[in-house]
Q: What sequence folds into this?
């Protein structure tokens, strides 16, 4: 069994579904797609596990003999699929992390939707699954990939957490002892039902064509800044006041291509200065981002910080945000962590250029749209990925 530590907050959050829609030229039969899906699932250790929560409240990935990952053949619209599937709880206790939907959109084209719980992996993980799936569809063998977790054994332990962070963790853990309870999958189901009665999301994708993308990239190269920083400056240039931007960051320590949630996060704050050019504002954002990413303590702070709380308190914060559970301690901590009114203004995950092949024999991946989940601590969630010569930017938020 593998203990769930840094990703503990993903268990009871009621919106932890990552979605990707791919367009594939070339057509396969349903039985071929089903067999390729089965083979691809079998090649990743994490997709053959289930989540268990023991009596003390610790959670683990445990191997299971019969997973519930599925493939379905039906027509779908991306936005409608997201709204439909995010309301359906992933049955983590039965080994359900991934749902695949295939629509035959033409005589020689397929549209495939992948809905994955964050405990099955991060955005890069789902790309690696898609690569394995298309390889299997082409009759290729896929190597078996064991899961790699970011936890107390693998995360950098130096520098130590700041004094204020250690004090805060100890204080809340001590207060929680009086109210402590262990939550189970029945609580998770009830939280889903409570939350989704009054919530619905919308999805909007914007395509930046080749010429416009090249122009922006040229500006970034000339100014020696990252494209994500440039994009943030564009997004906030008409917003008043200081904006708090969260950024999901690849936390892989060894560049592995397996499935598991190895994402970490940083944040930057910036007040757009209209006296300066867009590029100059972007340069300031870029400098702030790079400074934080170079700082190992800051880069992995959020994972080490959150995994130091009593795991059942982390669960309580998620359930507090869902409107299912309430206690004085979890309510205060939820507000402090940004699960209440002080959510991140913008949260961005940029997968950059798609780093999986486009060609798989007679099949060719021509497009990919990435929809990150509207997590409890974010307002406007943005997913970016460059595919071939164009950029897809997807906006996911509550209606």
A:
């Amino acid at each position: 069994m593998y203990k769930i530590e840094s990703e503990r907050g993903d268990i009871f959050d009621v919106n932890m579904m990552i979605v990707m829609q791919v367009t594939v030229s070339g057509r396969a039969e349903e039985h071929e797609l089903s067999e390729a899906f089965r083979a691809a699932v079998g090649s990743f250790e994490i997709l053959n596990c289930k989540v268990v929560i023991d009596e003390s409240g610790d959670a683990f990935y445990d191997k299971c003999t019969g997973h519930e990952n599925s493939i379905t053949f039906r027509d779908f619209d991306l936005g409608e699929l997201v709204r439909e599937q995010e309301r359906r709880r992933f049955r983590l206790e039965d080994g359900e992390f991934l749902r695949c939907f295939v629509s035959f959109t033409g005589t020689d084209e397929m549209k495939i939707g992948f809905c994955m719980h964050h405990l099955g992996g991060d955005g890069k993980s789902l790309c690696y699954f898609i690569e394995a799936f298309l390889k299997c569809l082409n009759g290729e063998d896929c190597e078996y990939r064991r899961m790699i977790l970011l936890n107390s054994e693998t995360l950098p332990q130096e520098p130590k957490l700041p004094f204020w962070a250690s004090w805060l963790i100890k204080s809340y853990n001590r207060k929680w002892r009086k109210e402590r309870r262990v939550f189970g999958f029945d609580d998770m189901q009830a939280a889903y039902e409570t939350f989704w009665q009054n919530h619905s999301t919308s999805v909007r994708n914007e395509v930046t064509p080749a010429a416009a993308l090249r122009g922006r990239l040229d500006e970034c190269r000339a100014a020696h800044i990252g494209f994500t920083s440039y994009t943030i400056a564009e997004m906030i240039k008409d917003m008043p006041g200081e904006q708090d931007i969260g950024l999901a960051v690849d936390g892989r320590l060894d560049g592995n291509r397996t499935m598991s949630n190895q994402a970490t996060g940083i944040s930057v704050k910036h007040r757009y200065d209209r006296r300066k050019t867009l590029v100059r504002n972007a340069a300031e954002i870029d400098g702030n981002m790079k400074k934080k990413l170079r700082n190992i303590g800051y880069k992995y702070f959020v994972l080490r910080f959150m995994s130091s709380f009593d795991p059942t308190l982390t669960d309580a914060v998620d359930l507090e945000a869902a409107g299912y559970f309430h206690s004085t301690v979890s309510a205060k901590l939820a507000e402090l962590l940004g699960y209440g009114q002080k959510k991140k203004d913008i949260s961005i995950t940029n997968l950059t250029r798609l780093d999986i092949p486009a060609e798989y024999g007679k099949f060719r991946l021509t497009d990919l749209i990435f929809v990150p989940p509207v997590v409890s601590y974010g307002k406007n969630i943005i997913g970016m990925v460059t595919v071939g010569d164009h950029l897809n930017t997807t906006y996911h938020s509550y209606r």
